[in-house]
Amino acid sequence: MSVVESLLAPFTNQGLFLELLITFGLYLLMASSLDLAVGYTGLFQLGHVGFFALGALGTTYATHADYFGGDMFLGIMLGMVLTSIAVILVGLPTLRLTGDYFAIATLGLGVMVQFVLTGVYANGIFGVPTMNPFGCDLGCMLDGPLGRVFGDGPRATTMLELVLVWIIAFSVHALLGRLKRSPFGRTLKSIREDRLAAAAMGKNVQLLRFQALWISALFASLSGSITVHHFQIMSPLGYGFPFMVIVLVMVILGGLGSHHGALIGALIVTFVNQMSVSITEALRASGGGGELDLSALRIVIFALILIVTMLARPKGILGGHDIRLRTLLRRRR
Amino acid sequence: MLLLPTAAAEADAVLRFPSQSVYFVEETSTSWNERSVAAPAGATLRVLAEVRVVGDNTLAAPEPYRIEWWMDDDLIGEINGTLEPGITLVLHNLTAILPETPGDRTLTMRLLTGPWDPTPQNNDPPQTLLRIGDVTGVMRDTTTRHPYLGPAILTGLAAIIVPLRWPQVRGRLASVAAPAVGQIDAWRVAWPHVDERTRQVTATLLCGGVLLVLFGASALSVRDLSLANDPGSALGIAVFAYAVVVAVASIRQRRFAWRHLGVLVWTFAVAATWQQAAAAVAFLRWPSLGALGPFVLNGITVGALYALIALGYTMVYGILKFINFAHGDVFVWGGYLGWLLVVQYPVVGLPLAIIWAIVATAGLGALIERVAYRPLRGGDRLAPLITAIAVSLLLAGMAQLLFGTKNRTFREPGSTYTGSASEAFLTQSYNIGPFNFTSLDATILVTAIILMGALQWFVSQSKLGRAMRAVADDPEAALTVGIPVNRVVTWTFIIGSALAAVGGVFWGLRFSLRPTLGLLTGIKAFTAAVVGGIGHIPGAFLGGFLIGLAENVGGQFIDSRFQNVIAFLILIIFLLVRPQGMFGKEVSRR
Questions:
Q1: In terms of Cα–Cα distance, which of B1, B587, B569 is closest to B276?
Q2: What digits encode the pLDDT tens for the residues B364-406?
Q3: Cβ–Cβ contacts within 10 Å for residue A267, how many?
Q4: Is residue A289 classed as helix, strand or coil in its secondary structure?
Q5: Which residues of B are less than 8 Å from A297 in CB distance?
Q6: Fewer CB atoms inside 10 Å of the end CB: C or N, chain A?
Q7: Residue B50: predicted pLDDT
Q8: What residues of chain A, 23 to 52, have a C-beta less than 8 Å from chain B?
Q9: Are A104 and B394 a contacting pair at CB < 8 A?
Q10: How far apart are CA B425 and CA B202, in angstroms?
């Protein structure tokens, strides 16, 4: 497979394309929720992947047949409870810090969650069921009336999963968008711009910052839960710092503080990610890499994207502005 | 892990291994991290090991397998079965009788498969067997007399002494205990004219006393972790405590205190936390002091290296008020650059390689500052931090791209280091009391101390150092009086990177280098800088030793797999209690 072919693979290979759209939904959850904390409140938190990992852990404990064997809602709830505990434990002492210190403290949390999980489950936990609301997983859903909608072709399960993930992801995205436009969101924005002024207006700045961190963490945990259902494995090795930077790239590429920017960033990152994987594989197959360890190529690409974005267009693609679907439609009319 | 679901144990001792996967398809040898259990000789040992044998989907027909448990060289148990294609098999639970002779034992699980009769008459495996995986763990004889009582008393006393000594902690504790202790009306009614300080002290004594009793009780009674983990008994304590609170409040107020329902939640949370803490204390291992010797030594060596890195963090933060996130990766690159000329292309000896590494890494640091940080200086405070994160990841990725994920050391065959005079010098070993060290350890320590002293002298006495302090104080004023701020900043990065390079080469000599090393080491070194008071050079240095010792020695009391968490806990504690660090003067709100 040539490099060009491998670049086009996401668009020519239907199965891969569907898979990427699911990944996009999962990334959208992460990016949209991180934007609430980083872009809107100015809380530069780097522990987002830690919360993601706790969601994954909660779902694994709650739904895996070897542990509790419950349904996906139980898993999501357990993940959110674990995440809330982590938010309280880490948020309370660190929220009075600003900027850099807060970033390092939350990054420490993320790294430690991954470290403990890797220590306990070095090779991950296999055999997590697919999404199973009320104990009925994807196969069971297709046996029911949904089977008539999705048919029984080879892609029926993937399509059904895609629809479910997108329903969750886009409703959360819409919810967060509503939240960001609400008085609550505007207060958060005022905190980002000037904490002192916000406090002078009678806002409880610390409480609001804590709430923003909490809400953001809850949706990261939700993303972790659904990701575990999707891949059916909890593998803590993937919940590390590189993933955190990838999520950061989504938010920053789209533009900090612009809600749909996170969506655009997530979309771009999903495809760039797959392309860099494809290029790596093509290079490896052709022996073009020599003695280089090509698996690091993806990391290097994302790091470069982030540096170039920061130097050339620090406000991201949307430049801190936000587009609203309604405005776009009105213009077209 | 304390939060994991536990199985009831009916043996004298339980050895629990974490989940481990063995792949059926290829010959692998994987090992558990070391777990140890204290068990008397001749005891019954229950081994809970979750081993997942992951079957291959291409397996055509059911394959017979055998799992053998070996203790040292003795076969102590075996399981025979058949693996279906595409099935994941989970195994656990082995009961073994420990031998009468005390000592450390190694437990090995061996998975075997191949065309043989699955029910063999003799224990000798046929030669045709394919050995798929070994999973080994070490049982260490760590029997001590009172493993639980000591820490219980210490924790309880600390819970009393620390808040009494430091009013800041007391205030926080009182605010935590307030819903349960401080705010109930009964308290006010019973003791109306009480001032805030007395209330805090009493709350402290009450909490500490309850902790003491609870820890002591659980230490004496809790021998089996599954008991301590039982949430039911936490609930029992909570309900009891709640009943007492409500009863007191109701009697005093002459009506039933419904509105203290929130207290139930608090009491349950506190009780559950105590329970988990008691379990954690019971979980601690108590190595003998003599056995700690190597870890103390290791802690000092690692601490010296952390200190070298922390100096770079603290200098850059002092001057730019910016965390140079990539500094940990610059340190790793220092090690790799030295390694390049010693092992990869063995052209120069170690002393020259160190000089090369220092020069090249200093150049790297200056380059990063020039290309990535300088264009963003003076603007938004977030932008340089994001860029620094990206640079950190870029350096780690490039290191992996160029040098691979393998652990790299200077001791590899074919390097100019092996067999050289420097190796002969650095590997001489000495023995003082429980400490058995080589001259490499001594060299690292001495070098670190000399470099720290030189840096301190440089910053306080030299012209450039005075310029640095001026820029740290007020960059604009420094510019006004003619100090070339940009050049001073570049020199700061050069000096910090050079120090990190020395640390990196020594790390490669003493331990090994890998691309992901920079992140965690960087966080720990940054913690050291925070602990010492950021911007304070001797403080960062001492902080490095503190972190190194705490994680190496402390790691022996918990599980060495989790020793990385210790530095993080120290960071959180310092940010909470003393954000200005050990030597910082002003109260920092950053």
A1: B1
A2: 999 999 998 888 887 777 888 889 989 999 999 999 888 887 7
A3: 19
A4: coil
A5: 397, 401
A6: C
A7: 56
A8: 42, 44, 46
A9: no
A10: 60
Per DSSP, the residues of B359-409 read HHHHHHHHHHIIIIIGGGTTS-SHHHHHHHHHHHHHHHHHHHHHH-SS-B-
Does A293 lie at the interface with B, CB-CB under 8 angstroms?
yes
Separation between Cα atoms, residue A234 and residue A120, nearest integer Å: 12
Residues of A in contact with B584 (CB under 8 A): none
Amino acid found at A27: Y
**Is A241 touching B (CB cutoff 8 A)?**
yes
- Collapse the DSSP code of B107 into the 3-class scheme (helix H, G, I; strand E, B; otherwise coil) and give the result: strand
Contact status of B385 with chain A (Cβ, < 8 Å)? yes
Are A293 and B404 in contact (CB < 8 Å)?
A: yes
| DSSP structural state of residue B254 | T
Report residue B207's pLDDT band, with 50, 70 and 90 as the boundaries: low
Cα–Cα distance between B432 and B91 in angstroms, integer? 47
Per-residue confidence (pLDDT) for residue A26, from 0 to 100: 93
Measure Cα distances from B293 to B105, B287, B435 in Å. 22, 10, 5
A108 touches chain B (CB under 8 A): yes
Per-residue buried b or exposed e for A205-244, using 16+ beta carbons within 10 Å of the residue's own CB: beebbbbbbbbbbbbbbbbbbbbbbbbebbbbebbbbbbb
d(CA B229, CA B218): 11
The two beta strands, B44-54 and B88-91, are antiparallel
More confident of the two residues B436 and B32: B436
What integer pLDDT is reported at residue B141 of this predicted model?
Answer: 37
Window B:529-588, CB contacts with A under 8 Å: 530, 559, 561-562, 564-565, 568, 571-572, 575-576, 579
Query: Contact A296/B398, CB-based, under 8 Å?
Result: yes
The 3-state secondary structure of B573-587 reads HHHHHCCCCCCCCCC
Chain A's closest residue to B5, CA to CA, is A67
Beta carbons within 10 angstroms of residue A133's beta carbon: 12
Report CA dihedral (A8, A13, A17, A19) to the nearest 10 degrees: -130
Partner-chain residue, chosen from B401, B520, B526, that has the shortest CB–CB distance to A296: B401
Distance (Å, whole) CA B188 – CA A246: 54
Contact in structure between B50 and B88 (CB atoms under 8 Å): no
Range name among A135-139, B136-140, B365-369, B372-376 with the lowest pLDDT average = B136-140
Query: HSE on the CB side for A117, CA within 13 Å?
Result: 27
* Alpha-carbon span B200 to B182, nearest angstrom: 8
The single residue listed with the structure tokens 């960059």 is B475
Q: How many C-beta atoms surround the C-beta of residue B90 within 10 A?
A: 13
- Contact between A249 and A265 (Cβ < 8 Å): yes
Distance, in angstroms, between A126 CA and closest chain B CA?
8
HSE-up of residue A68 (Cα within 13 Å, Cβ side): 17
Residues of chain B with Cβ-Cβ distance to A101 below 8 Å are 530, 575, 579, 590
Identify the DSSP state of B417: S
Residues B320/B313, Cβ–Cβ less than 8 Å = no
Q: What is the ipTM of this complex?
A: 0.88
Listed range (B144-158, B330-344, B517-531) with the worst mean pLDDT: B144-158
Q: Is A127 near chain B, with CB under 8 Å? A: yes
Residue for token pair 């090995």: B108
Contact B572, A94 (CB under 8 A): yes
Rounded to whole angstroms, the Cα distance separating A101 from B188 reads 40
A231 CA to chain B: closest CA distance, Å? Answer: 16
For the stretch A282-288, contacts whose Cβ atoms lie closer than 8 Å and that sit 24 or more positions apart, written own/partner, are A282/A1, A282/A2, A282/A3, A282/A5, A282/A6, A283/A3, A285/A1
Task: Look at residue A113 and tell me whether its pLDDT is greater than 60.
Answer: yes
